[in-house]
Queue: 4 jobs
Job 1
Amino acid sequence: MKKVIIALFAILACGSAATAEDAGCEAFKWPVTREQVLFAAAQATSPGAELAVGAAADLALVPAEKAGFTLPPERSPAEGTFGAVASVEVPPEGAIQISLSGDAWIDVIQDGHTVKSAGYSAVKTCRDIRKSIRFKLAAGPATVQFSGARKAELKVAVLAPE
């Protein structure tokens, strides 16, 4: 009987920890539930690929010094970190939200200039998503640079803000 009680307690404790991690996602300034769904089905993507609005990618990164950044990142990447460059076609509304599974710096470049973010939210207690950043851009092509990542892969979702 003691073993059954101990096993039930262990199951409840694990369930509570998972619930606490998921509850941490609620601390973002805006909902990230779409990203959670998309990250679960993210396809492997190479640096240089086009990121689709409304989708997620499991982006392979390279050592930062080999990333081929269009412009130097606004925050210089630390030695031993990873990065990548990708493109995105900004929809006519001009607003995009880029969410990441881990720590990395994001620079969005349009018309040869780095665009400042319009909103930022980061949470360390969310298991799947680390940060989500919003940008207001002109419709058309933009370059997205990821730098300073500690791991060689990063899940990235590009969405229209809700």
Job 2
Amino acid sequence: MLPASGEEAPPRPRLAEPVRSSLGFLLSKAAWQVTERFEAGLAPLGLEARHAGLLMTLGEQGALSQQVLGTLHRIDRTTMVMLVDTLERLGLVERQKDPEDRRAYRVQLTRKGTTMEARVLRLLRESEVKALERLPAAERQRLRQLLQQLVALDEPAPKEDSR
């Protein structure tokens, strides 16, 4: 209902300040926005962000075991099998016996997978540029550095200072 002439409109409901300034809430919403945009571009290709991540890792690292891929991406074994099955069904990867471990398989990109990996990488970059367009370039780079430092994907967690 509209306020009568001369009356003030009631204040719009809004999130509580502790929620609006919560690091977890902000990181979660930022990640959701970037992921939604990226996955919208991937959907016509039959892929999700998790598939894209695997393709990009294989494109950069070469053939890896499913176990190593799962560890790098923090994906459990059952989910990893399902993701690789999908990529294999799409003709983007192939499993080959690991010459160093008869019980294991290495996953590698096919020619089609290499082409798709390049396309996925372009989509990722485009979606990130769009998601971060409100920030100046220097702030976008600084945000990326801070998040990499916070998450420390390639490093063990720092030990607590015993002082």
Job 3
Amino acid sequence: MPVNQDLDLSFLYEIADGSDEFIVESVGMFLQQTPELLQNISNAIAAADWPNAASAAHKLKPNLGFFGMLNSQALLQDIELQCKTGTPDAADVVQKFKTVNDNITVNLAELERVKQEKEAGL
């Protein structure tokens, strides 16, 4: 699957109600937490530790929705559900996670740009 920048910040801007500080803080937390969660999922998948893969995926999913990454969120939901069965199709999980990871990596770069732009205006 190709990298799909599914970032949609309309929800974030709506609840920020003009507060660049809120946007900077929200994006900053996401930028800080997401790489670790992605690494946790990656490590769990590599070790075929399906319960931990499901748990880490579950923790990341709501954040993706908050930032409008609905395609990535849906793929992560599928990964979580497969891992919860205890006997997922490992190749499918690996491929879907690669797509999610690639998508989120592209989005993290864009979010860093947005954060810097908003910080410059404070």
Job 4
Amino acid sequence: MADGREIRLFSYGTLRQRNVQLATFGREFGGRDDALVGFARTMVEITDPEVIATSGETHHPIVTRSGNPADEVAGTVFSITAAELAAADSYEVTDYRRIAVRLRSGTEAFVYVRAADAS
């Protein structure tokens, strides 16, 4: 990274898809498995035609805080650039907001959660 800081992004959904990565970032990410603790995964309907065209899906996973430390959402943590983080922000629809979290491994990363749950 230009400023020396590594940016980590945790994905449990479509940002793990090769086709979404190529369309959104111009490259395929390598990553490692991890988990988001204290969150539960559900689905949300996507109405943005561009996002549907990119992902090929009308419903995407979304997470909300469960309040239960036994709940975990499996996913992948990626190392990305600041420009790629901005591209991910542009890809995500208004149902999602980006927050910083600590994953099960202790890694600090950004993740997209249900917007109403982001405060």
